[in-house]
Amino acid sequence: MKKLTIYILAALMALPAVSFAQKSNVEKMYKKEIKEKIKEYNAGGWQLFGTSRTINTALLKFYEKLDNLGNDGQEIVGVAARCQSKNVAHQMAFTSAVNQIAQMINGKLQATLESRLGSDGKDVANEIDTFMAAYARKVEGNIAGELEEAFSMIREIEPGVYEMQSFYVYNKKAGSQARIRAIKSAVDENAVTQKYAAELEKAVSE
After folding, report:
1. What is d(CA 94, CA 76) in angstroms, rounded to the nearest whole number?
2. This model's pTM is above 0.85
3. Residue closest to 97 by CA, chosen among 147, 154, 58
């Protein structure tokens, strides 16, 4: 019993050391990746937008947030091209990121609608386009709280013309609920699709 107690204590004392070693290895990996990213941004003429932080700090915080979310975390990069205003570029990059999230399950939604609307003899293409446009708008309204901007990079490609890349941390679990809210809202506004509400919600949740 005494020996067993000693072994348990020894194992418990070793845990912080292992954890510290793992954390040290992760930090080394971050430093290497951050160094490469900064070199890439500098070569491309990119600058950090809208913050007094350094790009080193912004990248480090970004990676840490993704790690903390684990499998629920996803990197989303919104892009904007040839904008004559920095603020417009920022908004367009956000819209780009939101559209990517909306499109994650577009295939399932379209397949469900094609199957059901086609059997009803409806104008499939027109109805699908109308519904998907409404869904995209609803996603933008519901997803903002689940899409956290980490940092944005901007560059001037010619006088007064800008490109932007905005990096977001997306919580997939919370985002799924936001997409379900978007589907419900889009269905409520479209009488043609209301009887397929349960199937459409199922497509989103899966």
Report:
1. 10
2. no
3. 147
